Amino acid sequence: MAYKFEVYKDKAGEFRFRFRASNGEAMFSSEGYKAKASALAAVESIQKNAPGADLVDMTKDAQG
């Protein structure tokens, strides 16, 4: 099984997507979108624009 995005409709009737790891575990999910096309556009944007995204640790100077 490979990594994949899944588009689905939530209980409120909004479209969302989740990203699943190769072991089937959901790694993250999106906000709700009124239109399916918007959810699909967000997936496409992630696929296109974030293959080499940097990790920025915003907690380095935080207490806790």
From TrEMBL:
Pfam families: DUF1508 (PF07411). InterPro entries: DUF1508 (IPR010879), UPF0339_domain (IPR051141), YegP-like_sf (IPR036913). Residues 10-57 form the DUF1508 domain. SUPFAM superfamilies: YegP-like (SSF160113). This is YegP family protein. It comes from Ancylobacter polymorphus. The lineage of its organism: Bacteria, Pseudomonadati, Pseudomonadota, Alphaproteobacteria, Hyphomicrobiales.
